[in-house]
Amino acid sequence: MMVPSQWPCPIDDIVIWSYAFDDGDDVVERAHEVLADGGLAEGVTADWEQLSGGADAPPLGSPRWAEWAMGRGAVRQAATAVGLTDVRVERSLTGAPVIADSAWGVSIAHTSGLVLGAVGPGRIGVDVERADRDVTRLVRALLPDERELTVSLSAISIMVAKEAAAKATGQGLEGSLARWPVVDVELSGSAPRIGVASAAARVIDVRIYEHCGYVTGLASYHDD
């Protein structure tokens, strides 16, 4: 599947960068190609060395490292596109990626065949899934009101909206879709909007769009 490097984005001032690979590709080889072609190897290696002492650091050269490395590479490319230089990507106390000493938000997402890195002002969260994913089990995990929404909105859209909103807060889903209920939906326009309520009672707007066979959710907000 051919995917452009700069992913279309429905929110101004946010840049999403992508790296794609086919199911039959050697994902580790693909990661090395990405880092070499973009001149990203040194910076991404420095990011990895910050994690290498932790138990959850991806083993160097493993498939998990490859997806992690492409995610960090995508963030660095997106950061360059918005004019940031000398970027250092670190982890917050909750494990979310952050750009050190910067007010710019960052988010990473990956699914089968695709890795995304997003950079934008304020807090942002991105999530992506293949549009053809089997959602039979997912529908059963939705709240009753959300299951009614699937008449006009796909279950995948609801899932990526919840995940993107949770990432924007820096917390993540923490294993529960129910803790992030959909409270508002606007289906007009090219990118539907889904309002997701956070644990702090903030409603986070998530834009949903489909491109190249994927469904992407992008959340954005600024701290009060």
What is the strand and helix layout of this fold?
Blueprint: E1 6-7, E2 15-20, H1 27-37, H2 41-51, H3 63-81, E3 89-91, E4 97-99, E5 104-111, E6 114-121, E7 123-130, H4 136-141, H5 144-149, H6 155-168, E8 182-186, E9 193-197, E10 203-211, E11 214-221
Antiparallel strand pairs: 1-2, 2-6, 3-4, 5-6, 7-11, 8-9, 9-10, 10-11
Average per-residue pLDDT, rounded, comes to: 90
Principal-axes shape call: globular
- Biggest sheet: strand arrangement: 7-11-10-9-8
Tally of strands: 11
CATH topology of the largest domain: Ribosomal Protein L22, Chain A
**Sheet with the most strands, sense and barrel status:** 5 strands, antiparallel
What percentage of amino acids are in beta strands? 25-35%
> How many structural domains?
2
Write the element-wise H/E pattern from the N-terminal end onward: EEHHHEEEEEHHHEEEE
| Span between termini | 41 Å
- Briefly note the structural class of the backbone: alpha+beta
Radius of gyration in whole Å, from Cα? 17 Å
Uncertain regions: pLDDT < 50 for 5+ in a row? none
Supply the number of helical segments.
Answer: 6
The CATH superfamily title of the largest domain: 4'-phosphopantetheinyl transferase domain
| CATH class membership of the largest domain | Alpha Beta
Helix content: 25-40%
CATH architectural arrangement of the largest domain: Alpha-Beta Complex
